[in-house]
Amino acid sequence: xxxxxxxxxxxxxxxxxxxxxxxxxxxxxxxxxxxxxxxxxxxxxxxxxxxxxxxxxxxxxxxxxxxxxxxxxxxxxxxxxxxx
Amino acid sequence: xxxxxxxxxxxxxxxxxxxxxxxxxxxxxxxxxxxxxxxxxxxxxxxxxxxxxxxxxxxxxxxxxxxxxxxxxxxxxxxxxxxxxxxxxxxxxxxxxxxxxxxxxxxxxxxxxxxxxxxxxxxxxxxxxxxxxxxxxxxxxxxxxxxxxxxxxxxxxxxxxxxxxxxxxxxxxxxxxxxxxxxxxxxxxxxxxxxxxxxxxxxxxxxxxxxxxxxxxxxxxxxxxxxxxxxxxxxxxxxxxxxxxxxxxxxxxxxxxxxxxxxxxxxxxxxxxxxxxxxxxxxxxxxxxxxxxxxxxxxxxxxxxxxxxxxxxxxxxxxxxxxxxxxxxxxxxxxxxxxxxxxxxxxxxxxxxxxxxxxxxxxxxxxxxxxxxxxxxxxxxxxxxxxxxxxxxxxxxxxxxxxxxxxxxxxxxxxxxxxxxxxxxxxxxxxxxxxxxxxxxxxxxxxxxxxxxxxxxxxxxxxxxxxxxxxxxxxxxxxxxxxxxxxxxxxxxxxxxxxxxxxxxxxxxxxx
Lengths: 84, 512
Hints:
With about 80 residues, chain A is an all-alpha fold. Chain A is about 80% helix and about 0% strand. Chain A starts with a helix and ends with a helix.
């Protein structure tokens, strides 16, 4: 049950993110922004969480939290630079 | 491992907390929807992070479910906030741009409007609406030709309809028309209709643009008026000039006739002048001859003396016959030679005086000429008047007519001689004055009064008894000196004497 909810969370988040990119698509070069990489790391964190629940490895838990920290720092920089 | 995860989550919580503070601080300044969403997302993230810390420190055993819910909530909210931020920014830019162009569209001095492809008016700028008095888009959806701008003239309306048809066909149309203003005053407008195409070349809109050219038109009318006035003035002036020209031609013809008369009179005058010149030349010669006549007696007497010499010598030689010899014979021959030479000198002097040539570039030796004149006057001077020659050592040469120069000095010397009643003295002095020679002939005669002195060179002026002089001598002398580029003047004192001063330009100095 726990696995399914995490997989759904990751899937919905990834789809939403891709939909956002398709909306803003060509109008801006988002790959150079902090917020883009922040979201990518959050998704990475979620992916690690899924892997952790599937493989039961503590290693993925460490990755999950490390990715989360990097994402937090990138969001902070994005806010500081007034990207959004 | 747990310890590491807790540390990471604590750092994450701190970073998110700081970020959330910044977001809420900005939200306080500017309450925009997407910023609120960012704030909510930050709180969710912060909460998730804090729960993570609790979870790993086993304070809350069921925290993982709650963290899961927050994690699911965070990303959609955050993504929606990003979307709002980016799209909202674009939207605000577009609104700003539209406001800017709307401002330009409304505030321009030209009339501007937008028509659809059927000729219905969609938009008109404030300048155009204020001009006719439309408010609150009341024109919207009307055919452009049926609006108040064209209510004044059916003809202009029809013209506009034709222009719209042309513009719909893809042409840009421009022409001058008229529009009434809010008070019904007609203004001239330069109207243009231009089609706007889409990417496929279909006509989307027509841009109608008009410029009020009433002032330009009025100025043009004024200019036309002035031009007409100017042309009238030019025509008038041309006509006046033609009249004046005709009058001038008439006057010119009259002048031409008069000119002909003047030319005839001029020719007559020239003939008269030539006659006068001839007469003057004859007079000059006559005067010379008259002087010669006066001198003839004296000259004859002068010649008689050497002839007596010659005759005496001849008689003596005849008496001695073949016995003539020695010293006596030489003396008689010398007497004969001296007599002949003396006669030759006198004849030469007379010859110089009486020559009558028109040449003006003969070499005139001043001292020789004065000496010749003195020879001719020898008889009149002899025994009564002493002649003192104070000649310069320099030889003075001038170019001119030798006979005429002789006549000048003979006249002056003759006058000097006649001015001395009894015994007296004539002094002849010559010296150089720069490039001229100055000859002063001073007599010790009775002198001339001042009022007479200024008239003595006048023609026919004489103080002599009738029959004794023509009154032309000094007048002719004066004109000859003038012809030779010099001048003649007299200084005199009553009962003391007179000095005649002749100044002539030197042409060649033989000593140089």
